[in-house]
Design brief:
8-stranded mixed sheet, binds zinc ion, 220 residues, single chain
């Protein structure tokens, strides 16, 4: 099967999104780029019903269906644009509760950097202005919001998160939801103390050298 591994990864992440409460119903969508091809969730299929052969494979450049028994996700263009803008390998789009709540706040055009974890996204994630779902205007607004960032909120809609692979994109989606939940808690308890932009920029640099892999089990 074409892109069998990528299709399986997508289904695994979809099941995690449901288990971790990042989506309800058929909301959200997930994609993985493989060279000239893109594997993406189909439109409107409950996550519990997904099978590898139902995942859409399209051409990355123009979205033409290559092996796609069902219509690909309505946000296909958003995924193409986000992957291009960030030079990433995978995209996770959710309607997770806290991120979506922050994206619905009047006058908030970026997630307040109340915690240094804002640096995980290349800096405080911006909120792209609202445009109707599936529209080119939405994809274009998100493209602007992603300049220098790996993630963005979509006004009155949800979150879009990228990563070099699906594991990284999904981890970032969890961290973004955590940060937005923190913002809501802080805002309801008092006045948020937002970290200066220069501090977040410094943490972005520091994080570039952070993180290590476990050595192989048989390493001596
Ligand atoms: Zn959506």
């Amino acid at each position: 099967m074409l892109l069998a591994d990528e299709r399986k990864q997508i289904i695994d992440v979809c099941h995690r999104m449901v288990a971790d409460d990042l989506v309800v119903g058929t909301a959200g969508n997930v994609s993985v780029r493989a060279g000239e091809l893109l594997a993406i969730t189909p439109s409107g299929v409950p996550y519990a019903d997904l099978r590898p052969e139902l995942i859409s494979v399209v051409r990355f450049d123009d979205g033409a269906r290559v092996d796609s028994p069902l219509a690909p996700a309505s946000e296909l263009e958003l995924h193409q644009v986000a992957l291009r803008a960030t030079q990433s390998g995978a995209v996770v789009h959710t309607h997770s509760g806290a991120a979506t709540a922050v994206a619905c706040l009047e006058g908030i055009d970026e997630v307040p950097a109340v915690h240094y974890y804002a640096a995980m996204f290349g800096g405080a994630p911006r909120v792209a202005p609202y445009h109707r779902y599936g529209s080119s205007a939405l994809a274009s607004a998100v493209e602007s919001a992603l300049v220098g960032r790996n993630s963005a909120l979509m006004g009155n809609h949800g979150a879009v998160v990228t990563g070099s692979d699906l594991t990284q994109a999904y981890d970032r989606a969890l961290y973004l939801e955590w940060l937005c939940d923190l913002v809501l808690r802080v805002s309801s308890a008092g006045v948020p103390r937002v970290l200066p932009e220069e501090e977040i920029a410094g943490v972005v640099e520091q994080m570039k050298g952070y993180g290590q892999s476990a050595p192989p089990a048989d390493a001596r």
